[in-house]
Structures are given as C-alpha cells and as structure tokens.
Amino acid sequence: MCEEKAKAAELTGQEALEQHCRVTLHQNNVEQKDTMNGLMRSEWGGCSFEDKTLTFEFPVQQWQANRVGNMHGGAICTAFDLTIAALARFYARENFAPTINLDVNYIRPVAMGETLAVTAKATSTGRRITQLTAEARIKSSGKLAATATSIYMNVDTQKEKQGQKEKEGKEEKQEQQKKQTKKKSGQTGYISSLMNYSDRL
Predict the structure, then answer these.
(1) Which fold does the domain 2-155 belong to in CATH?
(2) Where are the domains of the chain?
(3) What does the buried/exposed string (b/e) look like for 103-132 if buried means 16 or more CB atoms within 10 Å of the residue's CB?
(4) Which partner for 83 in 9, 56, 112, 127 could form a disulfide, CB atoms 3.0-4.6 Å apart?
(5) Positive or negative, the Cα torsion across 152, 28, 17, 53?
(6) pTM, two decimal places
C-alpha cells in the first residue's frame, strides 16, 4: 500500500487522471459487471488534467430503448452520473463523493446503434463541494444531445466515523449519568421516607 501511494505521488496530474480513469472503467465493467454501472458498458474517451475534463463513451444498447426506440432519458442521465462521478471522485481523492444534485437538459434523441460521448468538466473543486458540468454528444455526428450540471460532496469517511463514535460515546456517558442521578434520587427518597417514619415513632 505504501509503495502504491509512493508511485501515485510520482505521477504527473495527467498521468494520475488517466490511471484513475482506467481503474474506474475496470471497476465499472469488471468488478461491477452485473450492476447498472457494468450494464452501461462505459468506454474510455479521453481526459485532460489541465482542462479538468474526462470523457466516457456509452454504446446505445437495446435494453436502454424508450417506447419510440431511442435511448431512454434515464439511461442518458445514468451515463452523465457515471462520468461526472468519476471526475468528482478524482478530486475527492480518498474521500467518499456522493451525488447531491444532478440536473439534466435533453436536447435531441439518441438512436439505437449510436455511441453517446459524455464529457464532464469540474468547474469548482472545493474542500467539501465539487461542482461540475457535462455535455453528451452523439459521437457519429458530434451533435449535442443533452447537458447536465451536478454537485458532489467530499465526505471524509474516517473523520465522519470518528465523529459518530465520539457522539455515541458522549450519548452513552450522558445516559449513564442520568441513571446514576435517578438512582441517587431514589436512594435519597428512600432515606427521607425512613427518617419521616422514625420521627413518627
């Protein structure tokens, strides 16, 4: 693990982004082949560290057809999400990068047999939030089929887990203090009752 991190540190920004894309495509198409990620059959389309862009291509498949025989809007949205998420994760590094918002605008239909080329661009890469835009084009003609804007959160899972652990520990301590206070209160009440009883004798 240390050797892998050392090698990663030696890579240029472009090399690191290209390596990230290769790893992501392997995860999508091999490790997750039976999930939606794998069924989309994402392919390499290029990337630019300088421009903060990444392109994945998606062959339009029969199962993605809508009722009129074109690529379903949900499949186009999924292609956006897979491409944008890959770039968001690159900037999130080891953090978890869940989708907060994804807005899609559809411009023209994408026919069966075509390939949809989706290019994502990071417009803002902050410590907690990454904002991105994307374009989906029909590869054969270069015509714009849809556009998207998206926001991803950078979640430090280790920090979140530690914070949750501390919160649970604090709540457990408070609960114990309440029980002790209640127990003391009960003992005090019992002693008071005995004293009152003895006074009446």
Answers:
(1) Thiol Ester Dehydrase; Chain A (3.10.129)
(2) 2-155
(3) ebeeeebbeeebebbbbbbbeebeeeebbb
(4) 56
(5) negative
(6) 0.72
